[in-house]
Structures are given as C-alpha cells and as structure tokens.
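User: Can you model how adenosine-5'-triphosphate sits in this protein?
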Amino acid sequence: MELGQGKGRIAYGIVKRLAEAGYVAYFAGGCVRDDLMHECPGDYDIATSASPDDVEKLFPKTIAVGKQFGVIIVVEGDAQFEVATFRREGSYRDGRHPSEVSFTDPEEDAKRRDFTVNGLFYDPIQNKVIDYVGGQKDLQAKIIRAIGAPDERFEEDKLRLLRAVRFASVLGFEIEPATWSAVCRRFQEIHDVSPERIRDEIVKMLTRPGADRGLDLLSRSCLLKEILPEIEAMKNIQQPPAFHPEGDVFVHTKLMLAQLKNPSKELALAVLFHDVGKPPTLAVRDGHITFYEHAPLGARMTETIMRRLRFSNDEIETVAGCVENHMRFGDVQKMREGKLKRLLTRPTFELELELHRIDCVTSHGHLDNYGFLKAKQKEYAAEELKPAPLINGHDLIRLGMQPGPDMKPFLEEIYDLQLEGQIKDKDAALAYAQNQLRMKSKKAQ
Ligand code: ATP
Ligand code: MG
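Assistant: Here's the modeled complex, given as structure tokens:
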C-alpha cells in the first residue's frame, strides 16, 4: 500500500503505536478496498485487539462517541480516525442496530461486515492483506457478494439492501446472483431504514461515477419504487421526438446523470428531479405530447420528496429553485434585459446553467441559449449587474401608494427599467412611479 504523506501515513503511525504496545491492529474495510483498486481512500478505519479503554490510554486525544460499540475516535491534528475493537454483533433489535456487541478476533470481525470486498484487513507493518472472506477474489472479479447467507445478512440490517446497489454503482461492479435475488425479494424492507440513511446512500450514489447505472439497478431491484416512486413513474413517459430523440423521461434523466463529473449534491439532485413534474402533467393536445407547467409542479414535488428524505431547508430551496427555473432557459434570447440580468444574478445561476447545458446535450443538442448566456455574462462582466434599487417601498408610500401585494411587482418593474438603463437616477424613478400611480388611479375612477 502506498501511504504517501497524508492521512495514510498518520493511520500507519496509529497502527504502529498499537502494535508496539502489543496489540494486533489493521487497516479495515473501505480503505483497504479503495487502495487495492488504486483509489485514494477517503478515510482510514483501524480495527484492533485493544479494548476501547486501552485505546484511550494510548492516545492523547480521543473522542468516545461509539464506545459502547467498541469505537473510539483518535484525533491527530485535523484528522480523525475510527479505531474499533474487533467485534461480533449480537442479535439485531430493529433491522438496523445490533442489540449488543462483544469483542472477538479479526476473523469474526471480518465476517460481521456486509460485503466481501468490504471485509478485508491490511497490515501496514507487514505490508500484507488479510482476507478471511474471499474479498480479494471478488475485488478482482468486480463482484459485490454478501458475506455468508445473503438473506440473513439483509435480515440483520436492511440498509445493506441499498448499500449493495450503491457499491455496485460507485465501483462499477456486478452484484452476485444470490445476493441480487435477496435484494430483489426483500426490497420492501427498505422502509425499516430511517429516511436520513436512505438520503445519504442516494447522495453517495448520485455524486459518484456510474450514477446512471445505479438508478437502473435501483429500478430493477424495485427499491426505486419504494424510496422514490416519483422517479420510477418517469419510466415509459414518452416525449416529443423532435426535442427528445433520446427516449422517455427516465432515459433522458439517466443520460444526464451519466454526464456528471464530480458534481455537487445539489446539481446531481437537480438533474434527478428536473423533469419529475412530467408524468403528472402529460397531456396529448392536437396530437402533440405536452407537459404544461411541469417545472413549477416539479419544484413542488421536489420539495415534498426532499423534505421526506430530511434534506436541509437550504438544499431543498436550491434544488427546487433549479427545477422551477429550468424551462426559462429556453426563452433567454427573448427576455428583456432587466429580467435577463436578474436571472444572471440569481445565487444559483451557475448551477442552473450547468443543468441547462446537460439537459440540452442529452436531448436535442442545441447549445445556442447556453452560448448566448455565456456571451452575456462576459458582456456584463464589467458592469455592476446588481446595483442597489433606486427606490423602495417607503418611497412609494410617500408617493401615496397603499402598502399591499401590488407593491412588489411594481418595484420589480421599476428595477428592470433601471437595469435596462431606461431609468438612470432616483428622480427619474420617482417621476416614473408617480406617473404610473396617477394613471392607475385615473383608470380606477
Ligand atoms: P464509503 O466510506 O466509501 O462509503 P466504506 O466501505 O468505508 O465506504 P463505511 O460506511 O464507511 O463504508 O463503513 C466502513 C466499513 O464498515 C465497511 O467497509 C464495512 O466493512 C463496514 N460496514 C459499514 N456499514 C456496514 C453495514 N451496514 N453492515 C455491515 N458492515 C458495515
Ligand atoms: Mg468509509
């Protein structure tokens, strides 16, 4: 294993210290798998024969978050490492949490893990992989296989149903037939898992390569119709071939996911949800397939789904905003300048622009609106795109306007004229407002 200078080197130091104190200590699980696949591990977990108390005594800075499960966090500088005592898990209370743990040897610890490729240890001092579960063979063959009897392992912990699909997706592996058929039989049990854990798996899957295949695996296993029925409903929703020669809404969404490269979770989710409003708005009018108002409906659906999965308010607002706005990009060349400038200054504009670009390249292929917006961004770069409004609500009240719902659109209209350069200073803005108000009151008489 190449330890480099970063976290791997520090993790090696922790193992060495444990070994010098007479304990067995290995790198364990995901980091061994990633390293053998020549990927840089995100985290290094360490498994050891030392008890949690022993670990606390050996290292100056520790956190006892999971002490009753045998896990101590060792803090070294900015980095944290999970150091877990080799353990076996007792019976599972609720399909998710073991009711007790007790300490054991490395072999039993390997066998309580979920999939063979996640059950490997590595001894960095001897430079040796320790494999009790056939993980190396499966890693070479690119196979996700439950350790032991698949049904029992999924029965113990239902999150593993989703983890099987997520690892197959992210690693680009096949799921071994007995493991796969257990997932396909037990898909409904995913409801025993908390929405937060489901959310974390979905995000991990969508933000890594292979997300398009992951979505397919979710659908084929029937997990998708349990956790995201609104996405499953996009299957077989046909679209006008002139705009979407690539196929139905589900196929289009998968093609978009395939275009993502290291996306933020907001972009990945915006892609997943951008057309979620299409199935319920499908209508054939004069022989044409239409999806009127699918963007605003899709935004409301996105909010409901993301709330169900316990995303934060900020995440929900950002993603639902992208969904709501995505059809406006088709009109940008006809937009008045003020409206265009407001679009360009939305805090999520870059995200929305990227969503639009991917939407186009995976359907009709026309990037003229994208090119237009890029050019406008350059053109406006020197100008102040978001000047302070020349007048506000107080000014309107002073001119005699009653506070109420008419005020906001009126101020926006004046702001647009300011952005377009038609109103240049405060006096001109006040004069325009006064004039408009006078005309309105005349009309009302
Ligand atoms: P990643 O961090 O990239 O998601 P990972 O393999 O490190 O992948 P973690 O969730 O960090 O996954 O868990 C670390 C290790 O703990 C796994 O490799 C596996 O051995 C074990 N593990 C984690 N979750 C489970 C589970 N639900 N059932 C059994 N073993 C698990
Ligand atoms: Mg991990």
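A couple of observations from the model: The mean pLDDT is 94. The longest helix spans residues 426-444.
User: Helpful, thanks.
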